[in-house]
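Request: Have a read of the protein record below and say how the chain folds.
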Amino acid sequence: MLLLTLLPMRLGRASRPFKMVKGYPDYNSNLSNAMHTMKQSLADATAIDQKLSKRHIDLDPGGYVIIYLDREQGLVCAKHFTNVIDDRGLACDPATGKPIPTRGKSERLPTHLYSGRTAKELCVQLFEQTHPCPVTLLDHASYLGREFQRAEAALLGGQEYIQD
């Protein structure tokens, strides 16, 4: 006999855990309802994330980070580049003063290369072991933590990673 215990779910007035036992009448409908709730939650979370990805954020005067995977070595990698923010709010190359292109190749060299087997290892290197920390805005640090988690999941899951 298979016994499954699901996390508490909102069932009208109260939140309480429930059990499903294979072979009992409510097993299939409870499992179906739980799966539907999880799918709906995933769809809701995806929609929220997509909407928030389109919001305006100030650029970090400390620079920007390009994240990529080194599958051969099993690493999440991050290249840090410096920039200056001009009076229009554009990231510019400190050497030339010209805006840094957002698409296509850039011939700039990174100021530092970070790599780790996990998102946490990468965050420790970047935020705790590098002095001074090249990330100067909290929202940028938060974004990088999320992206490192996504990159790690893609690395472990054998999926493509595209930085948001």
